[in-house]
Each structure stands twice: as C-alpha cells, then as structure tokens.
Write a structure and sequence with these properties.
- The protein has about 150 residues and is an alpha+beta fold.
- The protein has two domains: about 100 residues, 3-Layer(aba) Sandwich (MutS, DNA mismatch repair protein, domain I); about 30 residues, no CATH class.
- The protein has a six-stranded mixed sheet, with helices on both faces.
- Strand 7 and strand 8 form a beta hairpin.
- The mean pLDDT is about 85.
Length: about 150
C-alpha cells in the first residue's frame, strides 16, 4: 500500500487556490516573495531565467519551487504575460503578525495576454484595443475602446 504524501498547511492552501485557476500560472505570496510550485515553477524558471529549486527538499512533500522578491513583480509579470501565460496573483490578505494560524490569501488579480490594462504590459506608443460585441435576437452592437488612451 502506497504511503499518502504529507502536505503542509501552506501547500494545502496553495492547492486549494490553484484548483480555482487551472490554466493560470499562480504567483503565491509568501512573506516578501512571490513563489511558484510544481509545473508553474518549472515554467516560471524557464521564462524568467530564475533559479529552479525545491521546497521540502528530501521530504515526502518535495516539490519544484521558483520565486522572486515581491517588489520585482513589475519586472517579472510583463515577461510572463508576453510569453503567453495567464497569471493569477495571489496575495496575503492579512498581516502575518496578527494571526497565529496560516495567513489568509486570495487571488487579487488575473492578468492575461488578451486583456491587460497594466501599464507595464500594454505596448507603449501604440494602440491597445479592446472590443465588445453584443448580439440579441433583433439587435447587434459593437464597441471598441483604446485602453491606452481611453478613446471610445
């Protein structure tokens, strides 16, 4: 009979959030770092050129790990999105000093190559259009918005 893999409370929380965003690379805030685990860590390390290491090295819960300091998000997020990744940013929703249990975390932003209004991601000095189409039985509507200028 196979031994069940022990999962830490942090990794249980990570897995519960990751399940809600299966197609996204999850940047998971742990203290002063955004960390990625498993397949996300392998992708992030390749795209960003950062070190791929392991969490729980040698233990039953060993998994791939890659991360970067939280203040470097503006540097790394555009690289991930330009590489075609959907990115879910999971932040700490409370101060770790105020809790004796695991810190509450949640996804605060979902950034995709198709719909991003982040100044570090949209192309500067060119138009960045967003289109909307409305279809009803007897009416059709279409609108365009240049998200870089606000022109409608």
């Amino acid at each position: 009979m196979a031994k069940e893999k022990k999962v830490t409370p942090l990794m249980q929380q990570y897995n519960a959030i990751k399940i809600k965003y299966p197609g996204a690379l999850l940047l998971f805030r742990v203290g002063d770092f955004y960390e990625t685990f498993g397949e996300d860590a392998i992708k992030a390390a390749q795209i960003l050129g950062i070190v791929l290491t392991k969490r729980g090295n040698g233990s039953e819960s060993e998994t791939a790990l890659a991360g970067f300091p939280h203040h470097s998000l503006e540097t790394y997020l555009p690289k991930l999105v330009r590489a075609g990744q959907r990115v879910a940013i999971c932040d700490q929703l409370e101060d770790p000093k105020t809790t004796k249990t695991i810190v509450k975390r949640g996804v605060t932003e979902l950034v995709t190559p198709g719909v991003s209004y982040n100044d570090n991601i949209v192309q500067q000095k060119s138009n960045n259009y967003l289109a909307s189409i409305f279809i009803e039985k007897e009416r059709i509507g279409i609108s365009f918005l240049d998200i870089s200028t606000g022109e409608f």
